[in-house]
Amino acid sequence: MEIPDEGRRNLKVTSTSKGRLAEDVALLHVENLGWEVLATRFHTPAGEVDILAWDQGCLVVIEVKARSGVRYGEGLEAVGPRKVRRLLGAAAYWLAGLERPPVMGVRLDVIVVELDTNSPRLLRHLRDVLAA
Domain spans of the chain? Predict the structure, then answer.
């Protein structure tokens, strides 16, 4: 999804704030899809989940990656087996805190936000990356 010029912000950003900016853009995208956002930047002993959301009875674990070039890979490449284990462990931790988890499934999505200088340029939402 191309982000229009009027939706871009010109901010001086560090690598940490680039990640936060990407997470904010991804959160807005998820909300625009009509999904219920359950948690953001959710910390557990297993690791952190950027966004947890419901999509029609499915718990969606969302990893957000900010990219300003391909120097460190395309985004999905940064989500290896170790990261997947941590994300699913964090989701299990969240579900264990519920009395009756109303879940029909769990899926892992990756949202890559490409940044142009200091503003978001492009968003790619890769759904159910473990099914591929």
Answer: 5-126
- Euclidean distance between CA atoms 89 and 93, whole angstroms: 6
Q: How confident is the model at residue 14 (pLDDT cuts 50, 70, 90)?
A: low
Q: What is the pTM of this model?
A: 0.81
Q: Specify the residue for token string 């807005």.
A: 28
Q: Are 110 and 129 in contact (CB under 8 A)?
A: yes
Identity of the residue numbered 64: V
Contact yes or no for 25/9 (Cβ under 8 A): no
Which is nearest to 22 in space by CA: 44, 35, 40?
Answer: 40
Question: What architecture (CATH level 2) is domain 5-126?
Answer: 3-Layer(aba) Sandwich (3.40)
Distance CA 5, CA 1 (A): 13
